[in-house]
Design goal:
This protein is α/β, with parallel strands linked by helices. The protein contains 15 helices and 11 strands. It has 2 domains: about 240 residues, Alpha-Beta Barrel (TIM Barrel), CATH 3.20.20.70; about 90 residues, no CATH class.
């Protein structure tokens, strides 16, 4: 599949999920194979333009992740165009526009899914961005705002006409959030109506589901919650697509993934205060405490999903949520995943 001038080796994509799909997680998923593109957590266009450090951190990526798309949100065409130029300057392969986030604090500022309620304004945002950069501009949207306004087919056509290089559709409305069932019939209608690539998302948990969704006529599939539960799901989907049996993941491999995730987090946040919300400034001990607390919180957030993918996950989740130190967290991981015979 090609998005503009960017070639993807696989049609399966790591969907952006705020607070979850950070660079460390994306790198590990990419290492397991089957991933054609990663998308960053959504980044504020306002924060990019103002040069806010915390915002810039959300846009960070490594060469290992390429091709990479940086997703931005906002509602002002000029600021979105300026933010797209910053993204291009950061070396991203693609800039993606979030028109799918239903969270009120985003939507109330004419950003995220609220742009779907103003198709003309949404099209003007894409038009301004396309004129400002040379990299492909893509859009991620939902089926619509609610059941009476399922306007994704119409809006997708408008952003295509404004120069968007690809569109991703989540088959639920903003009002649904993640309840109910994704409307893949609507996703299929959009895919068949546009000339640019259309990717679909929603209810893709198991690798077989990921592969089956391609039958809707989409060019690719974004996987969000499914990849949090099973970071190998894209690799397994690629196996199935190639008529190979999907690789089996052992409990120890799952444990190694968590250990590798923790190691990457520790290695990437070494300068004082970067990414730490609970550190004591000015002291090395404070920075270390902040780093450890930040890592623990990240692992807790991941385990809320990750622990649903195997037996005993509820027990692991409870233990991780009570870890009082990084050392205790590592002991919990070691005990759960590695204190068993290899044959198991």
């Amino acid at each position: 599949m090609k998005i503009g001038n960017v070639t993807l080796a696989s049609p399966f994509v790591v969907a952006p999920m705020a607070g979850m799909t950070d660079s460390a997680f994306r790198r590990l998923v990419k290492r397991h194979g089957g991933c054609g593109l990663v998308v960053t957590e959504m980044v504020s266009s306002e924060g990019l333009v103002r040069g806010i450090d915390r915002t810039l951190e959300y846009a960070e990526y490594t060469e290992e992740e390429r091709p990479v798309s940086i997703q931005i949100f906002g509602g002002d065409p000029a600021k979105m165009a300026a933010a797209a130029q910053i993204v291009e300057g950061m070396g991203a392969d693609i800039v993606d526009v979030n028109m799918g986030c239903p969270v009120p604090k985003i939507a109330k500022h004419s950003a995220g899914c609220s742009l779907m309620r103003e198709p003309g304004h949404a099209a003007s945002v894409i038009d301004a961005m396309v004129k400002a950069v040379n990299i492909p501009v893509t859009v991620k949207m939902r089926a619509g705002w609610n059941d009476s306004a399922r306007n994704a087919p119409e809006l997708a056509k408008r952003v295509q006409d404004s120069g968007a290089a690809a569109v991703s559709i989540h088959g639920r409305t903003a009002e649904q959030s993640y309840s109910g069932v994704a409307d893949w019939e609507l996703v299929s209608r959009v895919a068949n109506a546009l000339t640019i690539p259309v990717l679909g998302s929603g209810d893709c948990i198991e690798p077989e589901q990921v592969v089956d969704r391609m039958a809707a006529g989409v060019s690719g599939v974004l996987v969000g919650r499914g990849v949090l539960r099973n970071p190998w799901v894209l690799a397994q989907a690629a196996d199935i697509s190639a008529d190979r049996p999907p690789r089996r993941v052992t409990l120890r491999e799952r444990g190694r993934f968590l250990c590798d995730y923790i190691e990457l987090l520790l290695n990437e946040r070494v300068d004082e205060g970067k990414g730490f919300r609970h550190f004591a400034p000015g002291t090395a001990a404070g920075v270390a405490r902040g780093r450890d607390r930040w890592v623990i919180n990240k692992v807790r957030a991941l385990c809320a999903w990750y622990s649903k993918g195997f037996a005993g996950g509820s027990y692991l989740r409870t233990r991780v949520n009570t870890a009082a130190s990084l050392g205790e967290l590592l002991e919990i991981v070691d005990e759960f995943f590695f204190a068993v015979p290899v044959a198991s």
